[in-house]
Design goal:
6 strands, elongated, Tetrahydropterin Synthase, Chain A, alpha/beta, about 140 residues
Length: about 140
């Protein structure tokens, strides 16, 4: 099957920790990340595009600002949550551990719910390490 794809990169920052990680990721730390969002279509639109790159940015911008950017992402059972609540600190409690894999899946599902035909979302946690999510 012939398919066109386009990819839009989005940048944001977040803090997290992985509670049961055997290494240093169990400690509080942060990342400046790049997410690459790939949209696919079999046919181009009337402007000979899959879609406008700005449409992808507009779709995810509010979600990232409200949920992820400069937020602290934690597993819902993390024992630090009461201390954050007591200090009125911003955080997002997740059902899963806040890994790059989980964040790429969250972005994928959100963009798909907004009507885009998402091929894949890749999230670079560092310049040399990334995770991707797609549904085949």
């Amino acid at each position: 099957m012939d398919m066109y794809t386009i990819t839009k990169e989005i940048y944001f920052c977040y803090g997290h920790r992985l509670m049961n990680h055997p290494g240093k990721c169990r400690h509080l730390h942060g990342h400046s990340v790049k997410a690459a969002i790939t949209i696919r279509q079999q046919q181009l639109n009337g402007q000979s595009m899959v879609c406008d790159f700005a449409d992808i940015r507009t779709c995810v911008e509010a979600y990232i600002d409200q949920q992820l950017d400069h937020n602290f992402l934690l597993h819902k059972d993390d024992p630090i949550i009461p201390a954050l609540q007591a200090q009125n600190e911003r955080f997002l409690a997740l059902d899963e551990h806040p890994t790059a894999e989980v964040l790429s899946k969250m972005l994928y599902q959100y963009i798909q719910e907004k009507g885009f035909d998402v091929a894949e979302v890749t999230l670079w946690e560092t310049a040399s390490a990334y995770a991707s999510y797609r549904e085949d």
